[in-house]
Amino acid sequence: MSIKSNILTNKKYHLIIFGICITIFIAIIFIKPIATSLVKIGDNWQTNASHQTVSKVIPIQKIKFSRDPRTLQEQLHTYLVQNHLDAVAITTVNGSKTPMIVANGNISNFSNDKLNEHSVFQVGSIQKNFHGDNYSKVN
């Protein structure tokens, strides 16, 4: 007898083939919902991330400030308070490669980063260090 006819007539082989089919069927039943839920989680995460927006986006503004350091500091502080800002990114000239963060009227270099109206900062770290209400005048 050939192997083919032996498999077709032997009940032991029938049980093995039936067991393999049941195992595959059960695996499909349990794995498909898990895989589908993982894909949905990924889709939700991607959708939520792409829909996150900043509540108030202000485009880049050109403002002329004084060159005198004391007057400049007062003007920057006033600008922050009037606009309810904790910090603002500025550049000294058009196209400057060394933008700065201004908070409380104090200037900090923010080098090696390109800033524009779509730039995102770690607001928590800026807020912990700088608040517009804690202004102290330079004498």
List the helices and strands and how they pair.
Layout: H1 3-9, H2 11-51, H3 69-82, E1 88-90, E2 100-103, E3 106-109, H4 123-129
Antiparallel strand pairs: 1-2, 2-3
> What's the SSE pattern?
HHHEEEH
Please tally the helical runs, counting DSSP H or I stretches of 4 or more residues. Answer: 4
Radius of gyration: 32 Å
CA-CA gap between termini: 107 Å
Sheet with the most strands: spatial strand order? 1-2-3
* Shape descriptor: rod-shaped
Instruction: Please tell me the overall pLDDT.
Output: 61
Q: How much helicity do the residues have?
A: 40-55%
Strand content: 5-15%
Domain tally: 2
Low-pLDDT runs: 46-55, 109-113, 120-139
Main sheet properties: 3 strands, antiparallel
Count of beta strands: 3
Structural class, judged by helices and strands? mainly alpha
Written description of the protein model:
Keywords: Membrane, Transmembrane, Transmembrane helix. The chain crosses the membrane at residues 12-31. By secondary structure, the chain is mainly alpha-helical. The chain has two domains: 3-51; 69-133, no CATH class. Helices cover 50% and strands 8% of the residues. It has helices at 3-9, 11-51, 69-82, 123-129; strands spanning 88-90, 100-103, 106-109. Strand 2 (100-103) and strand 3 (106-109) form a beta hairpin. The longest helix has 41 residues, at 11-51. The protein is rod-shaped, with a radius of gyration of 32 Å.
